[in-house]
């Protein structure tokens, strides 16, 4: 069963901002080779891909938000981005996370997957992280409420920005060797 996202569009609360966007439209990531990356995105992650430019393609899944994948070849800087800079992919159940984790380990060589982290219950989801052939981090997760965005934004700020950060909380995440 594929969940339906209700109320995917909403008026942004940006009346007092300088820039008045109506949506976040896309993100970008780099790859060594578009053809090899496209195989991973389509065959392993299940994304829709279109090559819209000579050096780039757009990828998406489930909503009208896309990621532009730009081929930069050897200009990629491996190790410059850690697991906290990742793309999240939601699946429908804990069992599906387990199945994807087994598949990631089984197909590491076929798709050039560099690392698969252990599955963990953390930050309200059941998930694991993997590093793709281009050193990009992905989190495959299941959130019991089906759509984590609602949980994050419906309650508003839970902490004042004056409280500072608790870097210990970040270090408590089960990230292991995440570079």
Largest sheet: 5 strands, mixed
CATH architecture of the largest domain: Roll
CATH fold label of the largest domain: 2,3-Dihydroxybiphenyl 1,2-Dioxygenase, domain 1
Task: Measure the end-to-end span.
Answer: 35 Å
- Strand-residue proportion: 25-35%
Report the uncertain regions: none
CATH class of the largest domain: Alpha Beta
Number of domains: 2
Q: Give me the secondary-structure category.
A: alpha+beta
Helix segment tally: 5
CATH superfamily label of the largest domain: 2,3-Dihydroxybiphenyl 1,2-Dioxygenase, domain 1
Explained architecture:
With 179 residues, the chain is an alpha+beta fold. It folds into 2 domains: 24-73, 2,3-Dihydroxybiphenyl 1,2-Dioxygenase, domain 1; 82-158, 2,3-Dihydroxybiphenyl 1,2-Dioxygenase, domain 1 (Roll). It has 5 helices and 9 strands, in the order E-H-E-E-E-E-H-H-E-E-E-E-H-H. Strands 5, 6, 7, 8 and 9 form a 5-stranded mixed beta sheet that branches. A 4-stranded mixed beta sheet has the order 1-4-3-2, covered by helices on one side. It is globular and about 45 Å long.
